């Protein structure tokens, strides 16, 4: 339960921001009708439990075949594990779902790409990973056209985030932003306003820390490696800086056309230093074991009333919203990532997509696509929200009153999206992103543990990332 | 300690047994029993955790009396999302068995060559082979991965079999070399005079005489292949993935999986325990390459 | 070498058809040794050369850019890499602590078990069980037992009057916990080697010593210890090399955390090569590691060689 890297849940990243207006779906009229057709042909009508009992009937999604999926221990896939038997019944075939911790998954995807033939039909891709994976994922556009898959129901940012160079490399299944959750009851009691800036967070954390036995100010990802590395660049985004030298736009940075000269690291900057100092300052108001805390545990601590605030990938709010025993249930407010001085409020968008490896056996492609459309259908999406995944990349699902009831966070996220507060440039989809994150995750951890000063840490990180970029031959 | 030493020699010679037996003898029992308990306790934990319910697994204080359930085994084998652990188990068995067979055949041949023939550079060759025992897999993983990739053999049984064969060869050769040298040479000389060829002598005369050595090296090789983690992790994902690959998927964020993984752990450990026990006599010799008998 | 005694060559020599025999002999030698030799050539010697080649390139896994020649810059980078230095240091700490404790404990316990008291043989056999267990499972079960919230080690500790300890997540404690796990697995093996060596000590030496009037401690330091020296060296080298290459426990229990306190060299190498994923840099580390292991294995080989000569 303590392992830092072993599981990294929900990273996030991506896309949303560059086009704030994008909340409104691009008009692709092609398809309400075809959506309906696809839906029917795929048989997701059978989704509901009774119909599902008709195992393996002809015309079911799998029709007696086996699908092999490589995925991550994140809410939507954990839900699939939970309802695995039912899903197999619905699909009428065997679903081999290999769920791996984040770093193991990343490694397995890279290794799988080197196989002559892919061992999996479908893999899960984190939004910022598209840059690294682009050369070994299948372009889904031909399949989308061929089957008339309706794309208009997806949130625009989530949808375009899965595109690289005009190719659609994945279909969103669990895209969500990282936001700040706070306990409304505790804040009210203490006469505090919901935090807007990083200073607000520090002030509130200070006031609430140890104000009750076992209550810490804030829970967050300080575990070594990917958890802390991602936290660093996401918070740095709230101080108004991307990790590499991206071109600025009105609303932030552009990741549409990243050139070699954009690859210079920007860690040793005022924003980078401010981020390091902010994280260091949070240490004083953090729960025990903070240096090993990652995605899952921070939410668990928060759920059990161990912290007054936590950074959270919105989909994980199900952990307490669906658990009648959780102290935090029904008492949580959400705000966009609090920002630093002179920076705009902006939360990173991230989360998981389903894609098809390009080295998959050609004859498996139709089946893989059929399963992807099924798994990302509105019916299934709604199903996931019932079992612990408070995410909906589809308009039709996020407006469903039943979903909103399970998952109060869903409308909040929708509103942030419409205000243009979700962005993807904090974790630009460049192949070296994981290396950047690894460097920060290890150097900043030494800083938090008191082995380095913040100044020293940003310098060291800058140098190490600079070496990586030179090595990759960008400059 | 020194006292103990001298006394043990006395015992060996069979003298003054009763005189020294009390407090020191009791102390010996006590220390030995505590140490044995320490060695065995984690096995108890593996097995009982695999048999506990989820609530009992997370209980504080630990639950000592519980009603065993096979649910975790059942989940690991038949439910549990991905491929069943049986699939990995079968791969482990195939790969360990075949690589052991190949290693023992090739190794026995070479060992006989080293024990009974002289040729230029023999010493150096023998010691080079011995030194491959020390090759840390992690230092070889990068080149070997690229070699296997270029050969188009990623995620294949054959790649792991070849690598494990190479990994175990030095062990087989060195131990069997010792066994072959212990055969009285006269037997083979007699066979030579009877008109057997040298290869016939190896096959029909010498090999049957070292059967105990072959059995113990085969068991050791099989165990090393069975346990190997790094090559398996990097070179296989799915088709040829072995048990350690399954266990490496353990993710503690899904805190519920303890029972299932302990169940698989039990399956990974049980056969080894039986073999280890059976191997007793030759184990030290095997693990020290015949340096200590 | 006992070559002359065990070799057929002398036997074939005097015969008239010695030419034919010599040819057959050579062919037999070749047939027997070649297959194993070829396998080891391909999977041991060649990879070393190949690792050298890779280490002189910028070589990333699964990237579109092809490998580029980089001269010695990977090595140069290693030289300045604080994380690499840390990992070497952690590895050394781990080896010294784990192997040191195993040697001391194993040595002492060998004397405890070196007796004919009834039942001791059975106990001794039972202690051997940890030695060959899959290291991943060892990591798994100790990871469970060390858990801060429901781990049994913590429970024992609390029963003894302590408060809960975050064994795997607090600086030096994490490394010590991994050391403890390694000690659990390997002390019995060390003990057994010493036990076997003790059993093999010739009785007459002790009689002679006693006749010479040496005291108990004199016998230990002047007779037993020198006679055990080869066994000590052998087990020391074997354990040191094995500890140097072990990464399963770290993989299962800490993933190198907290703050790199358990990031041993193999783990850093592995994550660099297959997670970062910089194969060239990892290969450079591998080459340095091989150099270190070669030195250690040469020590072992020397030790064995000298035994062969005296045997």
Q: How would you describe this protein?
A:
The complex is a heterotrimer of chains A (475), B (293) and C (311). Chain A has 21 helices and eleven strands. With 475 residues, chain A is an alpha/beta fold. In chain A, the strands form two sheets. In chain A, strands 1, 2, 3, 6, 7, 8, 9, 10 and 11 form a nine-stranded mixed sheet that branches. In chain A, strands 4-5 form a two-stranded antiparallel ribbon. In chain A, helix 11 packs across helix 20. Chain B is mostly helical. In chain B, helix 5 crosses helix 15, helix 7 packs across helix 9 and helix 10 runs antiparallel to helix 11. Chain B is globular, with a radius of gyration of 24 Å. The N terminus of chain B is likely disordered. In chain C, helix 3 runs antiparallel to helix 14 and helix 13 packs antiparallel against helix 14. Chain C has two domains: 53 residues; 237 residues, MetI-like fold (Orthogonal Bundle), CATH 1.10.3720. A two-stranded antiparallel sheet of chain C has the order 1-2. Chain C has 311 residues and is an all-alpha fold. The termini of chain C are close together. The chains are: A alpha/beta (475), B mainly alpha (293), C mainly alpha (311). Chains in contact: A-B, A-C, B-C. At the B-C interface, helix 1, helix 3, helix 6, helix 7 and helix 8 of B face helix 1, helix 3, helix 5, helix 6 and helix 7 of C.
Q: What is the helical fraction of chain A, as a range of percent?
A: 40-55%
Overall number of structural domains of chain C: 2
What CATH architecture of the largest domain in chain C do you see? Orthogonal Bundle
Task: Tell me the strand percentage band of chain A.
Answer: 5-15%
Number of domains of chain A: 2
What would CATH call the architecture of the largest domain in chain A? 3-Layer(aba) Sandwich
Shape of chain A: globular
Helix run count of chain C: 14
Main sheet strand line-up of chain C: 1-2
CATH topology of the largest domain in chain C: MetI-like fold
CATH top level of the largest domain in chain A is: Alpha Beta
Quote the distance from N terminus to C terminus of chain C: 9 Å
Number of helices of chain A: 21
What is the N-to-C order of secondary-structure elements of chain C (H for helix, E for strand)?
Answer: HHHEEHHHHHHHHHHH
Largest sheet of chain A: 9 strands, mixed
């Amino acid at each position: 339960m303590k392992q830092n890297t072993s599981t990294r849940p929900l990273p996030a990243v991506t896309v949303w921001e560059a086009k704030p207006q994008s909340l409104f779906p691009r008009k692709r009229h092609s398809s309400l009708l075809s959506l309906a057709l696809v839906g029917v042909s795929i048989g997701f009508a059978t989704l509901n439990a009774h119909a599902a009992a008709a195992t393996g009937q002809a015309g079911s999604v799998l029709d007696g075949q086996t699908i092999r999926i490589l995925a991550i221990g994140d809410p939507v896939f954990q839900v699939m594990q939970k309802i695995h038997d039912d899903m197999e019944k619905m699909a009428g075939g065997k679903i081999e779902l290999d769920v791996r911790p984040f770093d193991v998954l990343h490694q397995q995807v890279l290794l799988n790409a080197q196989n002559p033939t892919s061992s999996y039909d479908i893999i899960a891709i984190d939004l910022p990973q598209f840059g690294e994976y682009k050369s070994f994922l299948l372009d889904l556009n031909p399949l989308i056209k061929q089957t008339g898959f309706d794309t208009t129901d997806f949130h625009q940012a989530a949808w375009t985030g899965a595109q690289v160079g005009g190719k659609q490399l994945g279909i969103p299944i669990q895209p969500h932003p990282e936001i700040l959750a706070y306990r409304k009851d505790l804040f009210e009691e203490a006469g505090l306003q919901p935090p807007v800036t990083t200073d607000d967070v520090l002030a509130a954390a200070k006031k609430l820390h140890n104000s009750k036995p076992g209550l810490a100010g804030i829970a967050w990802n300080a575990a070594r490696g990917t958890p802390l590395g991602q936290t660093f660049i996401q918070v740095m985004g709230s101080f108004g800086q991307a990790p590499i030298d991206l071109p600025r736009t009105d609303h932030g940075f552009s990741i549409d056309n990243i050139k070699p000269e954009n690859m210079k690291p920007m860690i040793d900057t005022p924003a980078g230093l401010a981020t390091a100092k902010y994280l260091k300052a949070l240490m004083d108001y953090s729960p025990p074991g903070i240096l090993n805390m990652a995605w899952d545990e921070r939410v668990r601590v928060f759920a059990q009333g161990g912290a007054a605030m936590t950074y959270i990938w919105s989909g994980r709010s199900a952990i307490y919203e669906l658990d009648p025993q959780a102290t935090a249930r029904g008492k949580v407010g959400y705000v966009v990532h609090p920002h630093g001085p002179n920076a705009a409020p902006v939360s990173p968008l991230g989360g998981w997509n389903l894609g098809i490896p390009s080295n998959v056996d050609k004859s498996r492609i139709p089946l893989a696509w059929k399963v992807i459309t099924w798994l990302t259908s509105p019916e299934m999406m709604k199903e996931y929200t019932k079992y612990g995944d408070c995410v909906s990349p589809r308009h039709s699902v996020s407006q469903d009153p039943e979903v909103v009831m399970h998952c109060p966070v869903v409308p909040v996220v929708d509103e942030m999206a419409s205000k243009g507060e979700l962005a993807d440039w904090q974790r630009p989809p460049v192949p070296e992103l994981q290396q950047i994150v690894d460097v920060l995750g290890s150097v900043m951890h030494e800083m938090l543990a008191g082995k380095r000063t913040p100044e020293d840490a940003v310098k060291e990180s800058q140098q190490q990332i600079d070496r990586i970029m030179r090595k990759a031959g960008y400059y | 300690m020194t006292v103990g030493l001298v006394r043990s020699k006395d015992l060996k010679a069979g003298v003054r047994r009763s005189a020294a037996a009390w407090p020191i003898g009791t102390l010996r029992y006590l220390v030995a029993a505590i140490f044995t308990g320490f060695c065995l306790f984690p096995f108890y934990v593996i097995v009982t955790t695999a048999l506990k319910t989820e609530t009992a697994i997370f209980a504080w204080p630990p639950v000592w009396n519980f009603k065993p359930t096979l649910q975790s085994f059942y989940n690991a084998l038949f439910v549990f999302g991905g491929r069943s652990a049986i699939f990995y188990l079968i791969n482990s068995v195939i790969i360990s068995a075949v690589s052991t067979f190949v290693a023992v055949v090739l190794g026995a041949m070479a060992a006989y060559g080293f024990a009974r023939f002289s040729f230029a550079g023999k010493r150096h060759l023998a010691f080079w082979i011995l030194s491959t025992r020390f090759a840390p897999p992690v230092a070889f993983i990068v080149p070997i991965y690229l070699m296997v990739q270029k050969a188009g053999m990623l995620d294949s049984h054959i790649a792991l079999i070849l690598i494990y064969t190479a990994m175990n060869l030095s062990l087989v050769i060195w131990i069997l070399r010792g066994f072959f040298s212990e055969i009285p040479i006269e037997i083979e000389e007699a066979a030579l005079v009877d008109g057997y060829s040298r290869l016939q002598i190896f096959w029909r005369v010498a090999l049957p005489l070292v059967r105990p050595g072959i059995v113990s090296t085969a068991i050791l090789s099989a165990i090393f292949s069975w346990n190997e983690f790094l090559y398996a992790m990097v070179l296989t994902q799915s088709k040829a993935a072995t048990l350690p690959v399954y266990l490496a998927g353990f993710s503690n964020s899904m805190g519920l999986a303890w029972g299932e993984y302990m169940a698989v752990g039990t399956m990974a450990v049980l056969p080894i325990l039986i073999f280890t026990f059976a191997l007793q006599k030759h184990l030290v010799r095997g693990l020290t390459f015949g340096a200590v008998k | 070498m006992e070559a002359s005694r065990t070799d057929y060559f002398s036997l074939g020599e005097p015969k008239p058809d010695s030419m034919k025999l010599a040819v057959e002999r050579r062919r037999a030698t070749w047939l027997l040794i070649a297959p194993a030799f070829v396998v080891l050539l391909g999977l041991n010697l060649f990879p070393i050369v190949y690792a050298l080649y890779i280490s002189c390139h910028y070589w990333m896994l699964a990237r579109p850019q092809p490998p580029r020649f980089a001269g010695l810059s990977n090595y140069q980078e290693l030289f300045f890499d604080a994380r690499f230095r840390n990992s070497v240091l952690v590895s050394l700490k781990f080896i010294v602590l784990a192997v040191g404790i195993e040697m001391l404990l194993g040595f002492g316990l060998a004397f405890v078990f070196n007796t004919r008291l009834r039942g001791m043989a059975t106990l001794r056999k039972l202690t051997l069980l940890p030695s060959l267990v899959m290291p991943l499972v060892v990591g798994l079960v100790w990871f469970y037992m060390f858990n801060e919230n429901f781990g049994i080690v913590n429970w024992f500790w609390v029963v003894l009057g302590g408060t809960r300890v975050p064994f795997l997540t607090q600086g030096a404690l994490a490394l010590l916990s991994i050391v403890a796990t390694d000690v659990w697995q390997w002390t019995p093996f060390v003990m057994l080697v010493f036990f076997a060596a003790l059993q093999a000590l010739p009785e007459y030496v002790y009689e002679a010593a006693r006749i010479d009037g040496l005291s108990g401690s004199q016998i230990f330091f002047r007779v037993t210890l020198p006679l055990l020296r080869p066994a000590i060296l052998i087990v020391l080298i074997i354990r040191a090399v094995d500890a140097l290459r072990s990464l399963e426990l770290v993989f299962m229990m800490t993933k190198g955390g907290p703050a790199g306190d358990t990031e041993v060299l193999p783990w850093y190498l592995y994550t660099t090569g297959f997670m970062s994923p910089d194969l060239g840099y990892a290969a450079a580390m591998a080459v340095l590691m091989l150099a270190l292991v070669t030195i250690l294995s040469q020590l072992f080989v020397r030790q064995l060689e000298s035994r062969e000569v005296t045997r």
